[in-house]
Design brief:
Helix 4 (77-109) packs parallel to helix 7 (144-168), helix 5 (111-126) crosses helix 7 (144-168) and helix 6 (129-140) packs across helix 7. The chain has 2 domains: 20-75, no CATH class; 77-193, MetI-like fold, CATH 1.10.3720.10. The chain is built from 9 helices and no strands. The longest helix is centred in the middle third of the chain and has 33 residues, at 77-109. With 194 residues, the protein is an all-alpha fold.
Length: 194
């Protein structure tokens, strides 16, 4: 017994990850942040170089843009304009999500509907975004409705595609079990969307 040495498995020491210390954790954060800060600094440097290479009326310098922005904040119209823009963005997002959920759920859950209309989502995603904008402005004119609708139509195809993929990724066995236990269809659909 005394001559037999019991050795620990060779991978046992390597299996436990090292506990990060404060210094190594800060070093990792620094290693991730430094390239990003440098890229932002290079962007501002390129901006300044382009501003000096061409006319300041074409590409104003960062200092000039900052000065004008601060003056605009003092005038007060920036906040109202930003509120209008955020309202349009929110309305476009809400409309696109409603359309994407309706289309995605219909194509993902109703087989005959999916077979008939699934390729239209791909076609709609392939249409250039500017075309949606032009058509919306031609149909509705240069107004709020056209702006909101155009932005929503640009986003809807890709969002609908994601909903379709999510619905189709659900395990069919779980859906069958829900039907066997007579779970109401509304509850199944609600759980699929959650």
């Amino acid at each position: 017994m005394s001559g037999v040495a019991v050795n620990a498995p060779s991978g046992a020491a390597e299996a436990t990850p090292p506990v990060p210390t404060g210094t190594s954790s800060r070093r990792r954060v620094g290693e991730r942040m430094v390239p990003r800060v440098v890229s932002v600094a290079l962007l501002f440097l390129a901006w300044e170089l382009v501003s000096r290479a061409v006319s300041a009326s074409v590409v104003p310098s960062f200092a000039r843009v900052t000065r004008v922005f601060v003056e605009s904040l003092g005038d007060g119209y920036v906040w109202s304009d930003m509120a209008i823009t955020f309202g349009r963005v929110f309305a476009s997002f809400a409309l696109s999500m409603l359309l994407a959920l309706a289309i995605g759920m219909a194509i993902g859950t109703v087989r005959w509907f999916g077979r008939m209309f699934d390729f239209w989502v791909t076609v709609a995603a392939a249409v250039p975004s500017i075309l949606y904008v032009v058509v919306a402005y031609l149909w509705f004119g240069l107004n709020e409705v056209a702006a909101v609708l155009a932005a929503a139509l640009v986003v809807t195809p890709s969002a609908a595609f994601n909903v379709i993929q999510g619905v189709q990724a659900i395990d069919p066995g779980l859906s069958e079990m829900a039907r066997a236990f007579r779970v109401p269809r509304r509850a199944i659909v609600r759980r699929r969307c959650a």
